[in-house]
Amino acid sequence: MSGGFKKESENNLRVTLNMDEIQKLTKRYKKIKKYMKSPIYDLKQMAGTEKVVSELLNDLKQNPDEG
User: Fold this and answer.
1) CB–CB of 18/12 below 8 Å?
2) Which of 3, 28, 42, 53 could form a disulfide with 16 if both were Cys (CB 3.0 to 4.6 A apart)?
3) In the chain, how many domains are there?
4) Per the domain annotation, does 27 fall within a domain?
């Protein structure tokens, strides 16, 4: 995300966020959640061929600091 943190005083912090990037992430998250609720996901998971969610979970396990 392009943005950053600026400390204004001891208790205040100004955060700048790119709303376009947040919308992209939200859209991607919603698509993944919808996919996880579908029967296709269940079938692929039983067959052992599911890659989308399993790769995300593996990345999270390998890099817990980034999650």
Assistant:
1) no
2) 3
3) 1
4) yes
Distance of alpha carbon 31 from alpha carbon 40, whole angstroms:
13
Residue 64 near residue 47 (C-beta atoms within 8 A): no
Query: Where do we find the tokens 């999650």?
Result: 67
Burial of residue 41, with CB atoms counted within 10 A of its CB: 0-12 exposed, 13-18 middle, 19 or more buried: middle
**Cβ-proximal residues to 56 (8 Å cutoff; 6+ apart), any chain:** 32
Counting Cα atoms < 13 Å in the Cβ hemisphere of 27 gives 6
Kindly state whether residue 9 falls inside one of the protein's structural domains: no
Asked whether residue 56 is domain-assigned, the answer is yes
Whole-prediction pTM: 0.66
Could you list the residue range(s) of the whole structural domain that residue 30 is in?
19-67
